Amino acid sequence: MKLGLKLWSTNTDYYFDEAKRLYNEGWFDYIELYIVPNTISTIDKWKSLDIPFTLHAPHFMHDVNLANKFKEKTNYQLFLEVKEFFKILNAKYVVVHLGIEGIIEETIRQLSAINLGEMLIENKPFIAPTADNLVCRGATIEEITKVMNELKCGFCLDIGHAICTANYLGINPYEFLNNFNTLTPTCYHLSDNYIDSQIDKHLHLGDGNYDFIKILNIIDTNINIAIETNKNSKSDLNDYILDNIFLKRIINE
Fold it and tell me: Which of 138, 139, 223, 225 could be joined to 98 by an S-S link, Cβ 3.0–4.6 Å?
């Protein structure tokens, strides 16, 4: 099992030294770095860590929406930064969200023009955590399959997102997760939540009520698993250590 630590490209002040220490102590195998727009100046500092990287492209939180044709120009410019991070950090792959509202065909058109290379598309909850319940592209197996087939790209299975979508659609969440897993993901995102929730909360492992024994019997624990839980502190990553211990205990049992 290869465990990932999720950080943002803005985390060069806090978490940076902690990440170096935890990597040297063997707590994780790679960093999944979320690229905040306009942080190109941080590349050299991240490279100095000499740690394996994967990347996560910016998404709706930072005004990126690949399903919206009117954002094509700004989407493209922000993805140029992602390409630069990818090259300098020698990242293994880039995880991408497919957009909000709009149509999946627009997402495919824009991603084809951006041409990221080693790209993994991530499934999303059916509805975004917004007041107006916006619909996420890439929530269903059908949309993920369509994009994978047309762009010849890989897949990042976000376990919590799949369960949220299953709840929205009224499907057994573990059966839905198992069906999604047949798409042979390259990596996973993992966090906890309440098993009947339609909104992803990124809870620490054990703080919700997911059945991790069931989950770990469904997924392939030999590939990358990025722990995507909330950060409780700006001075340490002790909560990540606890998540790490929780997961390894379940696997050992």
Answer: 138
Backbone φ, ψ for residue 5 (5° rounding): -105, 125
**Strands (E) located in the chain:** 2-8, 30-34, 53-56, 94-96, 119-122, 154-158, 187-190, 224-227
| 6-38 confidence digits (pLDDT tens) | 999 999 998 999 999 999 999 999 999 999 999
| Locus of tokens 């902690």 | 18
- Residues 137-164: pLDDT tens digits? 999 999 999 999 999 999 999 999 999 9
Number of domains in the chain: 1
Q: 36 with 61: CB under 8 angstroms? A: no
Range(s) of the domain holding residue 177: 2-252
DSSP-derived pairing of the beta strands 224-227 and 94-96: unpaired
Q: How far apart are CA 113 and CA 73, in angstroms?
A: 11
